[in-house]
TrEMBL record:
Transmembrane segments: none annotated. Keywords: Repeat, WD repeat. InterPro entries: WD40/YVTN_repeat-like_dom_sf, WD40_PAC1, WD40_repeat_CS, WD40_repeat_dom_sf, WD40_rpt. SMART domains: WD40 (SM00320). PROSITE patterns: WD_REPEATS_1, WD_REPEATS_2, WD_REPEATS_REGION. One of its GO terms (cellular component) is transferase complex. It comes from the Eukaryota. It holds the Pfam family WD40. This is WD-repeat protein. WD repeats lie at residues 20-63, 64-111, 112-154.
Length: 154
């Protein structure tokens, strides 16, 4: 069985569905996820904010201002949703931190720090339900975190 993408069909039927407006500087990263029956987009920007958008209702539902520098990457956490019934997005920043945000209850949950420089990319593990978070920093290092214990493993 093979899968292929029909570009001509996509090109002729594609259209702009919506534009989400709210950031005041470059949008650096976005992620998409579904939690239950709801669709969400999260975004991180050079305006130092993380924002969460409700796709079904076409509106911003949260804005988090905890970072003191540019937000480089955002990702939704399936681990928190499946293990703790929480809607959580994660962000990395030039401020040398990774932060976890519960956007249903509008609060910050965790901070991973200890970096010498800003944190660029983050990615949750595709195994163990996303329990592990890998991050890359401007200090030329890759870190592996256990989300459950908040400990750096390597």
């Amino acid at each position: 069985m093979s899968t292929f993408f029909m570009f001509d069909t996509f090109r002729s039927s594609s259209k702009l569905i919506n534009t989400f407006i709210g950031h005041t500087d470059w949008v650096r990263s976005i992620d998409y996820s579904t939690f239950g029956d709801c669709q969400f987009i999260c975004s991180g920007s050079h305006d130092n904010t993380v924002r969460v958008w409700d796709v079904d209702n076409n509106k911003q539902i949260r804005s988090f201002n905890g970072h003191s520098r540019h937000v480089n990457c955002v990702k939704f956490s399936s681990y928190y949703y499946h293990n703790h019934h929480q809607n959580v997005t994660c962000s990395s920043s030039w401020d040398k931190t990774i932060r976890f945000w519960d956007f249903k209850h509008n609060k910050q949950l965790q901070i991973f720090d200890g970096y010498a420089y800003g944190v660029n990319g983050i990615e949750f593990s595709p195994f163990n339900g996303g329990r592990y978070l890998c991050s890359g920093s401007y200090d030329y290092k890759i870190y592996l975190w256990d989300v459950e214990t908040s400990k750096s493993l390597h």
